User: What shape does this take?
Amino acid sequence: MIEIPSDLHPDLVPLAFLLGNWTGAGVYDFPGTEKCNFGQDVTFRHDGRDFLEYVSHSWVLDNEGNKVSPLETESGYWRIDKDRKVEIVMIRDQGIVEVWYGELADKKPQIDLVTDAVARTAAAGPYSGGKRLYGYVNSDLMWVGEKSTPEVPLRPYMSAHLKKVVDPSEWAKDLKDLPDDGIAFFR
Assistant: This one.
């Protein structure tokens, strides 16, 4: 179920399905790098203004699913206009800044994005642009990313399946008038 916080900026209601903390795993595969499974934590939050704050941390997983090393970190700000056009400003730890544009699909929680502008620091690796698809499917967040470099044409390189992280303190605040001993609750 998608909840819409009462203090969410009205323009962001179409993006409410993104809100929260998400965790899961995916696959990374791009020419010139070692293919790997990765874990990912993503947070979308708001503070009442007309944008969502986005933060993503991913890390390489070994064959047993243990964290091995950081993979990518990115953060940014997501906006949507009245015509369901989405714009994102994103910064990546590799020294890349991107502007993304896209659209929220009609009658379904799916966002198609493409880079419009890319800026790189001198230390950043080759990168020309990308595409992403985000979708809310059966209460999970799924995404696939494509990227290109001057040497490699646009191709899929990362995808993940994320589940919403539920904070038990959120449940507790909704429980009213619980007995002090905890046992009487079950009688």
